[in-house]
Amino acid sequence: MDGFVTTLLVSALALCVALLLGIIFGLMGTSQKKVLRGVNRVYVEFFQNIPLLVQVFFIYNAFPLMGIRWSTFMIGVLGVGIYHGAYVSEVIRAGIRSIPYGQNDAAKSQGFNYFQTMMYVILPQTVKIILPPLTNQAVNLIKNTSVLATLSGLDLMYRADSWASQGTLSYGPAYVCAGVLYFIICFPLATWARWYERRIKSREHIQLSEAAEKELMMIAEEVIG
Amino acid sequence: MIRLEHVHESFGKTEVLKDVDLTVSEGEKVVILGPSGAGKSTAIRCINGLEVPTSGLVYLDNEQMTNKNRVQLVRKHCAMVFQQFNLYPHMNAMRNITLALTKLQHMSKKEAEDVAMQCLETVDLAEKAKSLPSQLSGGQQQRVAIARALATRRKILLFDEPTSALDPEMVGEVLNVMLNLSHEHGITMVIVTHEMGFAKQAADRILFMEQGEITADEKPDDFFNNPPNERVKQFLSKVLY
User: Fold this and answer.
1) How far apart are CA A111 and CA B182, in angstroms?
2) Is the CB of B49 inside 8 Å of chain A's CB atoms?
C-alpha cells in the first residue's frame, strides 16, 4: 500500500511540475520573440529525445558527483516532471496555435495586454481543446513514475519487485498486482479523456459552465493581480 | 484626432505602406477605398497599434504612440470592428461586451450590463444577449461586434472590411447600423470597405489607396462624379457596373 501512495504522490507532484513548465515553455513557444521560441525548442527537443530512464539515471548517478544530491522522491517529482513538461508544453503550444489569430487582434484592440489576453481570451478557449491530450500525458506520466523502481524509489513497482524477491508473492502475481493498481489509476483518467473529447466533437462550441468560467476568471485575477 | 506621419510598413521584403500621411479630425467619417493589397487594412491596423510601423509616427489625440504607451493610448481612444467579427466564442453576446468594461474600465457587473444592453439595443439585438456567437448569424455577430466596440465609449471607431465576410443578404443590416452611427457627431470613424453605396452616403472624405500610397483624398461627390485621376476612374468603372 505504501508503494501505491508513493506512486500517487510522486505522480501528483510531478504533474504539477510538468504543468507549470508546460505553461511557461508552451507560452514561450507561441511568442513573437525568436529567442523565446528558441528556448522552447531546446527544452522540448532535449527532453523528448533522450529516454526518461537515461535522464533519471543521470540525475541519480551523475548529479551526486557534482555535489547535487536528490532523494529518489525528488528525482521522481523533478525528473519525471521536467521530462513530461516538454510534452505538456507541446500540447499547450499546439492548443494556443489552434486559436485563430483574430482573437488576439480583438483582445489587443480592446486594450488587453499580453497576460490579460492569454488569461481571459486565449487560454479559456485552449483548455477545452487540450484537455484530452493533456489527460493522456497525465496517464503516461503516472506509468512512467515506475522508472523509480530502478532507483529503489519505494514506489509501486519497486514494492512489487521486493515482495516478489522476498518471496511474499511470486513474481507473476506481484507484477499482476502492480499492473492492476496502475490500471486502477490510469484507466478512469483515459476513459474520461475519451468521453470528454467525444463530447467536444459532438458539440463544437460548448459554453463553459458559469462555475467553471468564474473559477478561471478568479485564477486569472490572482495571476494578474 | 488621428495623425499618421511618413508611415512606412514592410513585412519582410514587401513594402506595404510607403510614406503614408493622414490626418483625421474629431468626428470625421473617413472611408478608405482601393484594390486588395493596397495597404488599407495595414493602415488602420497601424492606427490602433495592431501593427507597428517600420518607420514614421502615429498620433492619437495629439499624443505620440510609442512602444511604452501603445496599449494605454489605444485603450483610451480606439475600438475596432473586424472582417471576421472576432467575437470571443466561449462567451455569450453580453459577456463579449462586458469583459473589457469590467476588466479594463473597472465598472461593476451591473453597470457594465446596463451599458451592454443599451449598445445591444442600438444594434437591435437586445433579445440575443444570452446567445453564444455560434448561435448567431454572421450579420448578427458583426452587429454584436459593433456593440462591443461602442460600449467602450471610445471616440475612434475603426472598421476593417466589416461586411466582406458576410452573406449578401446580411450586408444591409450591418451597413444600416454603421450608417446610423455615422450621424453621431462625437464619433470619429475610419472605414475600410468595398461598399460604394455606403461610402457615398456615410463618408465626409474618401481616401483612395493603391500600392501602399494614398493617391486621392476627396469629398464623396467629387470622388464619384469627378474622379481625381485615371486610376480612380478605372477602379470605379470596375466596381460600379
Assistant:
1) 23
2) yes
Please say whether the beta carbons of B188 and B1 come within 8 A: yes
**Burial letters A139-175, b for 16+ CB under 10 A, else e:** bbbbbbbbbbbebebbbbbbbbbebbeeeeeeeeebb
Extract the C-alpha cell encoding B98: 462586458
All cell numbers assigned to B194? 468595398
d(CA B137, CA B153): 25
Query: Are B80 and A109 in contact (CB < 8 Å)?
Result: yes
Q: pTM to 2 decimals?
A: 0.81
The CA-based angle B82-B85-B88, given to 5 degrees, is: 120
- Pairing state between β B205-210 and B29-33: parallel
Query: Among candidates B241, B200, B201, which has minimal Cα distance to B223?
Result: B200
How many beta-carbon pairs below 8 A join chains A and B? 70
Q: Which of B68, B86, B134, B158 to mutate to test the interface with A (most CBs of A within 10 A)?
A: B86
Q: b/e map of A30-66 (b: 16 or more CB within 10 Å)?
A: beeeeeeeebbeebbeebeeeebeebbbebbeeeeee
> Mean pLDDT of successive 10-residue segments in chain A (225 residues)?
79 92 93 91 92 86 82 86 93 92 93 91 89 89 82 73 74 80 86 80 55 62 58
Contact in structure between B5 and B21 (CB atoms under 8 Å)? yes
Instruction: Provide, as residue numbers in chain B, all residues whose Cβ is less than 8 Å from the Cβ of A121.
Output: 88
Per-residue 3-state assignment (H helix, E strand, C coil) for B60-118: ECCEECCCCCHHHHHHHHEEEECCCCCCCCCCCHHHHHHHHHHHCCCCCHHHHHHHHHH
Walk across the sheet containing B29-33 and list its strands: B78-81, B156-160, B188-192, B29-33, B205-210, B213-218
Q: Could you tell me the residue ranges of all domains in chain A?
A: 2-224
C-alpha–C-alpha distance, residues A126 and A92, integer Å: 8
Q: Report the largest interatomic distance among the alpha carbons of chain A, rounded to a whole angstrom.
A: 69
Domain boundaries A2-224, CATH class? mainly alpha
Angstrom distance (rounded) from CA A156 to CA A3:
4
Among the listed residues B221, B133, B139, the one whose alpha carbon sits nearest the alpha carbon of residue B176:
B139
Q: For strand B213-218 and strand B55-60, is the pairing parallel, antiparallel, or unpaired?
A: unpaired
Judging contacts by C-beta atoms under 8 Å, the chain B residues touching residue A113 are 71
